[in-house]
Structures are given as C-alpha cells and as structure tokens.
Amino acid sequence: MAPLTDCLKKGEFTWSSAASKAFIEIKKKMISALVTRLSEFSKVFEMACEALEISIGKVLAQEGYPVAYFSEKLNESKL
Prior knowledge:
Layout: H1 2-6, H2 17-32, E1 46-51, E2 55-62, E3 65-73
Antiparallel strand pairs: 1-2, 2-3
C-alpha cells in the first residue's frame, strides 16, 4: 500500500512500477477476500489490529467476516 500513497507525496501524482505492482496485489486480495457484511448488534464483534513501523490497520469483524476496515500510513509526526 505504501507505494500507492507515495504517489501523492508533495501534492504531485507520480505513478511508478512499484505502485503498479502494489495496485495489482491489492486488487487480487480484494477479489479473493471475504466480502464485508452488515453488522448485527446482537452478535459479538471481533477486532484485529496491526501496527508496523510505517502504518497501522484494524479490521472489525463478526463471525469471521469483516464489517469495517481502517488503515493509515504514519508520517514523521505520528512515529
């Protein structure tokens, strides 16, 4: 994902071969991933979190199916 967000650095859009590769990989994962479902408040929610040196991500799920995603690339002030 980072090569895609790097395309927008300094307000200028610059596409690279790394961005193209990341885009294709994300497309593959989205196609093969489980489709998100509407949440049912009568059921238990599960939260998965991940923090890396350059990004954070979370998935809210119910019964193993995602209902919401969040991810953010960290900048220097957030590190």
